[in-house]
């Protein structure tokens, strides 16, 4: 069963970790990973199964029979923070209207003549989204936009539908060929424009 234990916060909490900064950063990464994962599932039962099983795994870390580091208050605090946020996410998913509608989220977005369309590949759009997210230049209110929020904005703007975003992002990052073929192509195109301008 797929769970959220393959995260840095889980690895740290299985040890007697007491570095506040490292735990805080790992906690933020966990929240982002969980949010992206939930956003990329259309089946409520699958999401809830993962969230519930993940909560069990973190709950075990706090159990007296398995908690060798019960005297580490900071570690215990983060374990309970994770379980609380998982409970909150379970409640949100359980009550979300997204899963009670008949809308098929795999349908292509509709568009009219004269609107902007993305003619590149899904991988190219994801490559651009990863770079924008890592750079942190796009804001969502008073915080930096999450990866999935950037993908949704680009998809909506350019009328392209990308399913299983998180899975496709992972596959893209795992590739062993050119690391950033699309961004390299954009950089080369910009350099050509500058060269022509300076002639």
From TrEMBL:
<dbReference type="Pfam" id="PF09357">
    <property type="entry name" value="RteC"/>
</dbReference>
<dbReference type="InterPro" id="IPR018534">
    <property type="entry name" value="Tet_reg_excision_RteC"/>
</dbReference>
<protein>
    <submittedName>
        <fullName>RteC protein</fullName>
    </submittedName>
</protein>
């Amino acid at each position: 069963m797929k769970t959220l234990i393959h995260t840095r916060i889980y690895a740290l909490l299985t040890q007697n970790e007491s570095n506040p900064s490292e735990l805080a950063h790992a906690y933020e990464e966990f929240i982002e990973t969980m949010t992206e994962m939930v956003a990329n599932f259309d089946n409520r039962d699958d999401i809830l199964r993962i969230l519930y099983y993940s909560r069990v795994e973190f709950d075990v870390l706090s159990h007296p029979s398995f908690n060798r580091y019960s005297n580490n208050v900071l570690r215990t605090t983060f374990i309970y923070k994770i379980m609380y946020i998982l409970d909150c996410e379970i409640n949100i998913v359980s009550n979300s209207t997204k899963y009670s509608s008949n809308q098929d989220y795999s349908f292509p977005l509709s568009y009219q003549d004269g609107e902007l369309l993305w003619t590149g590949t899904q991988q190219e759009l994801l490559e651009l989204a990863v770079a924008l997210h890592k750079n942190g230049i796009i804001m969502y209110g008073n915080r930096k936009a999450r990866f999935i929020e950037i993908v949704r904005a680009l998809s909506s703007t350019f009328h392209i539908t990308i399913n299983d975003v998180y899975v496709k992002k992972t596959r893209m990052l795992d590739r062993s060929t050119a690391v950033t073929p699309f961004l390299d192509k954009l950089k080369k195109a910009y350099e050509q424009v500058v060269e022509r301008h300076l002639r």
